[in-house]
Amino acid sequence: METNLSDTRPETKTVGESWVTTTFEALEDWSQRHSFWPFPFGTACCAIEFMSTVSAHYDVARFGSEVVRFSPRQSDVLLVAGTINDKMGPVLKRIYDQMANPKWVISMGACACSGGFYRSYHVMQGIDEIIPVDIYVPGCPPTPEGLIYGILQLKERVVRDRRRHNEQRQNKQEKLAPLENKESERADVGRAVPA
Amino acid sequence: MPTLAEPSLLEGLIGDIGAKFPAGSITVQENSDQPTWVVKREVLVDVAKELRDRRDTRFDLLLDVAGVDYPERTEEEGGRFDVVYHLYSVTRNDRLRLKVPVSEADALLPSVIPVWKGANWFEREVYDMFGVKFSGHPNLSRILCHEAFQGHPLRKDYDPARRWILTEADIYKPHFDLPDGEDDLFERMAINIGPSHPAMHGTFRLMAVLDGEAIIASDVEIGYLHRCFEKMAETHNWQQIIPYTDRLNYCSAFINNVAYCKTVEKLLGVEAPPRAVWARTILTEFSRIMDHCVCNGATLVDAGALTNFWYLFQPREEIYGLIESCCGARLTVSYGRIGGLAQDLPTDFVARSRKLLETIPKFIDDCESLINKNRIWIDRTVGVAAISGEEAINWGWTGPCLRASGVGLDLRRAKPYDLYDTVDFEVPVLTGGDVYDRFRIRMMEIRESLKIIRQLLDRGMPEGPYIIQDPHIALPPKEACYNQMEAMIYHFKLIMDGIQVPPGEVYEAVEGANGEFGFYCISDGSSKPYRLKCRPPCFPIFSTFSRLINGGSVSDAIVSLGGLNIIAGELER
User: What is the ipTM of this complex?
Assistant: First the structure.
């Protein structure tokens, strides 16, 4: 506990044997970066490699990111694994909007990062067209090692510049938003009403 | 020169069937790889019925419907589009291709859904991609592209990169086939599952009308992973398409490589050397094992049996090791090449494969001992989403799902390719047609695949080149490129211009992990395909999904999706 906390923030100090003084931000960083709850937005080939990463051989639990949650309300990392096309775009945006702050996005694989080699009429040329991305993991698909490296990079990022990053995110979100995102228009989505 | 079809029984029949229709309704197209009839649209449905029901034809399986666009063709020559139907007779093991020309001004065909139910989604796809309409179709709407899409992307005049943005206001409205008298939805509840839902594997959307827990009507929407494979194929040269084929059925990428390479080899009239064929057969079977592991693992996760998922993913990791040693990639291998393989097999290939033969059965046994007599599993799967063999054929099913319904159709046996006629293996057949049997049949097939691999390993690796020694098709070795002028020129020509494939059309299929996986390919003699249509085994199977789950409960629907092994990359291409 001591070393973990003190390597994150210089203001953390150990007093005596059983007391630690620190700031609330440092405590939050420390707890958050060691337990990501990813939402796997898996659509294609990358999702299979994500499954490999989670399963016994690579075991992403070693890095504190194995609590996979399929509810955006219960997760803090959106892990986009696979091609996102124009039909899926509004769904992804909606999932992202539903996640509570603070939240991060890992874009796994060439398709999510840039559309990959699908420069075509139905494929989004990178998910950063509609949502901000924190970590881009290249590869088609990335190896599990690559994805784990991406997760470790995200940990660093959480610690390093969280507050600045949140400010940037606010600005970024205002600039990006090609899709209509008003509550009133979204009310009928996700419910199947017979025509 | 492409290989031509052998004379078929059908040649005698054309006069017999043709006599029933006005003169000129059916003509035979010569110089094709398989019997091809050009049929006028007025008689299409009647000809289709005749072909399905006659005892000497029995074309009971509609494999594929493909559109082809010829913008230059005039009205006298038939009009702008061809709609191509590929038929297969399960009982007679025979194939037939029907071509129906249709003009742009009057792009309307009669729907063949009354003859083959599996035509439903195929016709929607042709409508979506080419704008050809089908009269009598119950729900002729876009299927792969989104609702706000304008134009028809596989027409030759459509710009491959022209995108349309979908807003949430435009999304798909479900089409429910409610039973009679059930149009009052006051007491009913309509639910939506997916596309971003773990039970829908991330890319499918199920909409259902419930009466209590029971589903009384449902609709399925796909297209959330449509990434334009066929348009991309028309804009890349023959070799560049191989990586795209990897990403069709990405659980068993190598099988796709083989299917595509065999199609182009058939057009070129060449064959891969023995060493490549041997390796292709072995790696195909390893890929099949991997695919079945994912399918069964995912089914069990959907049913809540997570432990088995760990057991079934471990053999995949072991096989990845072998594949990585061959080509450097794990999942999307791109190891096949037209005329052979991308590079030679590693020296320890046989030893590594033998080691796998020892380790894999352990995981399969562990999983089966947990599941086969498990009360919960049996209660949830026996009799769930059952379908008879006859009905499954009418819907266009092939592969393990069809074999679980009592029809022993397997291309490795029906039309042996590569080395399958030289090895001894069983084609497992079960009769339940439910989720339970679909699970079991995959486990049985894994054991058969291991048997095939063992026999081939015992035979030893054939000596000789791993790719065809023709500088017009395969790149010369690297050393030669750097040291010999001629080799360097060939290398340059192949990289810059690609392979020159003679004009022609072929259909070639292999037994993929989900069923008949084929390519229908038209070449106009240039360095790119004129049209490349993939025959995806998932597509007709998933079009049956509503029929399978109606009447069952929601939890039945969840558990039955996994057993069908729907891979979105291949379903939507």
Answer: 0.86
